[in-house]
Amino acid sequence: MLSLFQRACVRAGLKIQYSQGFNPRPRMSLPLPRPVGVESDDELLCLRVHKSISAQEHKCISEQVHKSISAQLPEGCKLISVNVAKASVSFQPCSATYVLAVRKEYLNEKLKAKIERLLESESLSLERQIKAQDTRHKTQDPILKKVDVRGFLKSIELVGNSIIVECKISTDGSIRVDEILKLLELDVEKLASPIRRTRVQWKND
Fold this sequence. Notes:
- By secondary structure, the chain is an alpha+beta fold.
- It folds into two domains: 2-70, no CATH class; 91-204, Alpha-Beta Plaits (2-Layer Sandwich).
- 21% of the residues lie in helices and 25% in strands.
- It is built from four helices and nine strands, in the order αβββαβαββββαβ.
- The chain has helices at 2-12, 58-70, 109-120, 177-183; strands at residues 28-29, 39-40, 46-47, 91-101, 125-130, 143-148, 153-159, 162-168, 196-204.
- The protein has a five-stranded mixed beta sheet, with helices on one face.
- Strand 7 (153-159) and strand 8 (162-168) form a beta hairpin.
- The longest helix is centred in the first third of the chain and has 13 residues, at 58-70.
- It is globular.
């Protein structure tokens, strides 16, 4: 996704700032990159440009940038909006909503009961693979860590043929998409379409 927008910005003639050093990189980031295999309706891209903008210019510049970048994007990728922020501002995600469309044959009472039990649970402990922090060895086997993910689940709803899951995101982390599937005892073969992230709530500092 970063490479896609980097190329689009270059073709649009947008002057992006680059990092210093031997291998300069464009100063652009995705504060909450989507997981592999997950579609997204709500991505946030942050980039720094070589231009000081006054408050009066914000709207005009935003419209120009939106138009020029949109013209360079491939089919299936749409730029929703562009806003100008202060260089000191950082964006932190607070929550994310995922939609899991389930095949009809798996929409049964067992699945409904599973959702109810998850919501009623005070704790939900899972084993999560993490990388070892020992830098002395270049290759290491991942280690398993027990994580209580109940605090990261804000809500789970069954609406039609879809399960809508809202997840809390904090400095302590969040729940992973594969962990949501595990808790629901689902796998990708039981889904009618790819998982979609439909909404992210942000706070800025």
